[in-house]
## 1
Amino acid sequence: MEHLPVFLDLRDRRCLVVGGGEVAARKVALLRQAGARVEVVAPRLAEGLQAQAAAGEITHHAMPYAESLLEDAVLVVAATDDVDLNRRVSRAARARNIPVNVVDQPALCSFIFPSIVDRAPVTIAVSTGGASPVLARLLRAHLEAVIPAGYGRLARLLGGFRERVKARFADGRERRRFWERILQGPVTEMVFAGREREAAELIRRSLDDARPPFRGEVYLVGAGPGDPDLLTFRALRLMQQADIVFYDRLVSPEILAMARRDAPRYYVGKKRNYHSVRQVEINRLLVEHARAGKKVLRLKGGDPFIFGRGGEEIESLSREGIPFQVVPGITAASGCAAYAGIPLTHRDHAQSVVFVTGHLRDGRLNLDWDKIVQPQQTIVIYMGLTGLDLICRELVAHGLAPETPAALVAQGTTPRQQVLVGSLETLPSQVLEAEIHAPTLVIVGEVVRLHDTLAWYRRTEDG
C-alpha cells in the first residue's frame, strides 16, 4: 500500500488553493463539498470561481502567493502552471506539516486526491497512487454503476440505531454479529425500495428479540490456485465476516489480504519434511475457537477436498457438533492447466483425467501405477516436484513411452507462473536447470501438446 487512505473532517476548516484556473476550480468544488472554508490566492479567477467569490462562497486573495497565507490553513492545494511556484508552495506547506497536494506532480504531494464515489455518508475513495488517474476514474465509474444510491440512506438509518445497539450488546463481537444479521436480511432491500419506515421497525423488533448467544461456526474455504480473481463470491463474503483466520502455505498473500482486516491470522501450513502445526492440533484449534463463539475461517489453497485434508477437518467438527460451511475452490489442476493452455480432457487426446499426489514417503511413491497409466488419460500430479525423476521413471516403467508429453507448472495462475514443457524423458533435467519454486503441478499426456497454441495467459502477459 503506497498511500494510507484517510478521510479528513474539513467542515468549517480553512483550506487554501493556490491558482485560479479551471483545475483549481475542480479542487475548490471538492473542498466545498466537504464543508471547508475555501480561500483562493490568484491574481485572476476563472469565471466559475469569480461567481463564487462574488457570492461570498469562497474568499479571494487577488494577489501573488505569499507564505503568510499558509498560517492557520489545515490543507493546501497548488494548482498553477508555474512549476517553481508549485514547488515553493509544497516546500513551505511541508515545513509547517500542512497536508499539500500539487496537481499532476505526485513527487511534490504529501497527499493525493482519489476518485470518489459519493453515497453520503458512505464515501468510497479509489486511487492508483498517481500512477494512472484515468484508471482510477474508470474504476470509480464501475463502482458508481454497481453501488446503489440507497446505500447512503441505509447508512443514515443504521447510524440512528448505533447507540441503542451499543446499549443492547455490550460485547463488540455481538454487536457486529447483530449488524451482519440485519444487513444480510430484508432491511437493505427495504431501504433500496424506499421503505425506510418498515426497515426501521424491523430493526427495532430485532433489538427486542431475545435470541440465544451467538454460536460459533467454521468456514472451510477453498482459496483457489493463487489468482485472487478466481475466488468465488461466497468465499469472499465469508472471508470478510470471519473473526479469526487459519491459513495454509499455498494461500497467496494477495488472497489473504482480502480477509477481514482486523481478524487475527495464524499460519498452520505444512512444508515438506516439516509440519509447523500438526493436523490434530489444527482440528482442535477450529473447535476451540468456534466454541468460543467466533466465526472461524479455515483458508486452504485450491479446493479443500482435493488433497487438502478438508474431509478430516469437517469430520472433527461434526463429531464436536460445530456448525460449518464448505466453499469449494478452483483446484490447482483446473486453474493451472487453464492458465497454461493445457485442457485436461480433449476429444482427440484424452477422455479421462486422474489426480494423484506425488508426495514421497520414505523416498517411495505408493501409487497404483497400472490404473494411472491408461490409454488417452491425462495424469495430474500434485506435489510432484521433489519426486519428479522417480515419477517419470515409474510412468515409463509401467507402459508410457519416454516421449510422452509432460509439463510442469510452477506458481500457476499468478504473475510468477512458469511452464516447462518436455517429455517424461526430458522434464526432470529441464527442471534441474531452471529456477523453480513451489507450488508446482505436473501434467502428463497428449493434451500437453496443445500448450503452444492455447497458452493465452502467457501471450497476455507478454503482450
## 2
Amino acid sequence: MKDTEPKAKRRIGFSLILNIFVIIMSVALVLYFFFSPDGLRDLISKSPDTIIWGWVFVAFIAFMMNIVMDVFVTFFFIHKEIKSFTLWDSVKTSCVGQFFSAITPSATGGQPMQVYLLSKMGISAGFSTSCMTQKFIVYQITYTFISIFAIFLRFDYFVHTMDTPYKWSLVILGFISQVGITSLLLIISFCKGLSKKLLRLLDKLLHRLKFVKNPDDKISALETQINGFHDANKNVFKDKKRLLIYYAFVFCQIIFILICPYLLYRAFGFSGANPVDMICAQAYVNLTSSLIPLPGASGIAELAYNMFMAAYFSGGTLKSAILIWRFITYYAVIVCTAPFSRFTGGKNSGRKKAIDDCLNEGAKAEPTGGADGDNEPTAAES
C-alpha cells in the first residue's frame, strides 16, 4: 500500500550552507598550502631535513596545554560549589566547549553545549551559565589586556607591519570589537545601574522592531540572566586568592596559544627572533581573525598569519608554516575533542538531587552576620 501522505519538503537551512562553504574553503586552503609552489610538498621534496619535527611536536603539546589550562579553570569554577564535580567531568566539559567552538561561527556554540552537558550531569542551567560566563569574562579581560600590552610593547613593529590601509582597518576593527565586548561584559557584570539603563534602551528598541516576537519575554529573560551575573560576581570576588588563581591559569592558557608560532619558527631551523616579538605578532593575528564570523575564522586566519609572520618565515617556508600552524591550532583540536561530543547525547546522569542538595547546603552556609563561629567576620565586627 502506497503512502498517500505528501512528503515533507526538506529545507536547506543557512547553517547547512555555511557549514558546506566552510568545509570546502578549509579543504581548498589545505590543498593550496600543500600543493602550490613553495608549499609543504615542495619543501619536503626539495629539503626533507628543513623541518625539525621534534619542535613541531613541542608546538602541538604547547597548544594542547591551553586545553589543559581550560580544564583546570573549569574545574575550579564549578567544584568550589559542587564537590561532586570531578576533574574528569571538567575534561568532558572543556573538550565539548572546544569542539563546538571550533565548528560554529565566532565560537558561539561552545558555551551553550557546555551548559547543556552540565545540565545532563544534573547541574542547573542557571548555575552552569553563570560559571561559564564568569570564566569567559576572566578569559576576555585577560586576553584584551594582553592584546593592548602587545600593541604598546612592540608598537614600532606593529606600525611597520601595518603598511596598507587594508591591514590597518582589519586590525583596528578587531581591536575595537575585542575591547567593546570586554567593556560590555564588565558593564553587565559590575555596573548594575548602568545595566538597567541599557536594558530599558534595549526594551524600547525591541518594541519598535515589529518583527521581534515577545519582546517583553526576551527582556525579562535577559534581566534574569544579568541578575545572575551580578550574584555570580559576588561569589567570585569573595575569594580573592581563588580569583588570582583563575587569572593566572587563564594567562598561562593564552600564552600557550600565542607561543605556537615561535615554536614552529624553531621547527624550520630559524633562530634569532625574540619570542616576545612573535607572541605579540600572534596576538595581532588573533585580533584580526576575531572579525570573521566563520568557524575557525577560515580564510582570514591564514591571511592574518601571512601578514604578521612573513618577516619570520623566509626561504619559501611561509606556506608550510601556515599549514602546520592551522593543523595544530584548529584541525587537530577538532580531531582530539570530537570524541567528547558523544557525551552530549543520552539521558541525564541522575546526579541532580545530590547536586541540588550540595547547592542548598552552600546557600545555608552563607555568612549571616557572624553568628556562626566558622564564618568570616563582617566588616562591622572587624
## 3
Amino acid sequence: MLKNKNALVTGSTSGIGLGIARELASKGANIVLNGFGMKSEIENLRTNIESDFSVKAIYLNADLSKANEIESFFNSAESKLGTIDILVNNAGIQHTDSIETFPVEKWDLIIALNLSAVFHLSRLALPAMKEKNWGRIINIASVHGMVASTQKAAYVAAKHGVIGLSKVIALECAETQITCNAICPGWVLTPLVEKQIAALAQEKKLSLKEASDLLLSEKQPSKRFTGISELAELASFLCSNAAANITGASLPVDGGWTAR
C-alpha cells in the first residue's frame, strides 16, 4: 500500500511511535526513526525493520524543542531518504504540577516539543507534499486535546493546540491530496504511563495491578488500555486510499473517555 513512500515518525524508538513505524514499514514505507535510547538498541530496531519488511530505515536524532535543530534534522532526513510523504508527529513529554507551582522551564519545554515541533515539521514537510500532490500528516494528540485533567496544564494546552493546528493544516490543504488528522489516545500502556502507575501505587500504597485498575476506572469506561497496535493500524488506515477524504478529524481512541 505504501511502497516507495517515505515516512518520518518522531519519538519512534519505543512505545506508540515504534509501533506506528513498524506498521507503516509493513505496508512498504521507508522509515526515518527518531528518539532516545542506547545506540546498540536503536541500531537493532533499525536493522530489524529493514530485515522484517524489506524497506530502508534510517535513524536520526535531534533536540526537537529547538527550531534550528528541527530544520537540520528534517533536511538530513530528506538528503538520506528522499522527500517525506508521511509525517507522524508523535514525540512528547509530560510533567504534572499545579498551575501556581508549575516550573516555567517545564512549561516552555513541553509547549516547544509537544506543539511547536509539530508546526515546524509540518511546515517543512508540506512544500514537497504539495509538489507531489500527496501527503499524510498524522499528529498523535491525546484525549487531553479534547478534555482536561488537573495538574497537566502544559500537556493539555499543547495537545489542544495540536488539534487546532491539525484543523488549520487540513483546511489549507483541503483541495489537495494531502490530509492531516489527529489521533487522540486515552490510556495506553507506554513507559510514560507505567511511571504514572508506579507513582500512584507508591502514593496510595497499592499494588501495581490495583493502581492500574484505579487509573483506568477514573477516566476510561472500557477499563482496558488501548493497545499500541490499535493506534498503529489506525495510523496506517489514515495513510490509505480509503481515508483520502478524512481530514481535519480528531479521532479518539479512548475506551469511551470522551463519551461521558
